[in-house]
Write a structure and sequence with these properties.
The complex is a heterodimer of chains A (113) and B (113). With 113 residues, chain A is an all-beta fold. Chain A is built from no helices and 11 strands. In chain A, strands 2, 4, 5, 6, 9, 10 and 11 form a 7-stranded mixed β-sheet that branches. The mean pLDDT of chain A is 94. The model of chain B has no long low-confidence stretch (mean pLDDT 92). In chain B, the strands form 3 sheets. In chain B, strands 2, 5, 6, 10, 11 and 12 form a 6-stranded mixed β-sheet that branches. Chain B has a 4-stranded antiparallel β-sheet with strand order 3-9-8-7, with no helix packed on it. The N and C termini of chain B lie far apart (41 Å). Classes of the chains: A mainly beta (113), B mainly beta (113). Chains A and B meet through strand 4, strand 5, strand 9 and strand 10 of A and strand 6 and strand 11 of B.
């Protein structure tokens, strides 16, 4: 069974631009969560989607948004990029919303210049 | 509110020595507790988890952890360190399953040959 796939793996964007990151969960998994990892703030929860609905949201500005499609694939979007948005963005999938195990992808490394 | 404290951002042990990585949590309700490992430029891999039941949890690669409610701790141990254990380790807590994790700041483990 294929794991969680995140694309692209690396991305360089300019301040003020927007970016879309993609996450394909493990087949059959319906919950997708997103995390931001930075040296200064560590790993922080962004949001969780289950069956195309956002169920939980972390403490991030509205520039960070996401969505989930009917096939459970998820995208997150960051608008008006700032230098501080440079981070590793990790996606995790679980079979359902109250599962006790999340499987992580390898992440997308976003660099904002 | 939940929080996780990992004591020691860097831990060094000799190959073959005991590994002890400390994690203390704060949670207003019985938590789910997790240990993840991250290798450079990789996502997170679940080592072990505590949800309910037996307080001594065994995980992959010879790691185990004990949930001590009275001490609000979930320390990770391995009897004998291997060079391949060198990585960053994250303790995480959740009250609603693995889809919404609150992570500690991580402990980088170095194994000295």
């Amino acid at each position: 069974k294929a794991g969680v796939t995140q694309t692209p793996r690396y991305l360089i964007k300019t301040r003020g631009q927007q970016v879309t990151l993609s996450c394909s969960p493990i087949s059959g998994h319906r919950s997708v969560s997103w995390y931001q990892q930075t040296p200064g703030q560590g790993l922080q929860f962004l949001f969780e989607y289950f069956s195309e609905t956002q169920r939980n949201k972390g403490n991030f500005p509205g520039r960070f948004s996401g969505r989930q499609f009917s096939n459970s694939r998820s995208e997150m979007n960051v608008s008006t990029l700032e230098l501080g948005d440079s981070a590793l963005y990790l996606c995790a999938s679980s079979p359902d919303s109250l599962n006790t195990e999340a499987f992580f992808g390898q992440g997308t490394r976003l660099t904002v210049v | 509110a939940q929080s996780v404290t990992q004591l020691g951002s860097h831990v060094s042990v000799s190959e073959g020595a005991l590994v002890l990585l400390r994690c203390n949590y704060s949670s207003s309700v019985p938590p789910y507790l997790f240990w993840y490992v991250q290798y450079p430029n990789q996502g997170l891999q679940l080592l072990l988890k505590y949800t309910t039941g037996a307080t001594l949890v065994k995980g992959i690669n010879g790691f185990e952890a004990e949930f001590k409610k009275s001490e609000t701790s979930f320390h990770l141990t391995k009897p004998s360190a291997h060079m391949s254990d060198a990585a960053e380790y994250f303790c995480a807590v959740s009250v609603s399953g693995a889809n919404n994790l609150f992570f500690g700041t991580g402990t980088r483990l170095t194994v000295i040959p």
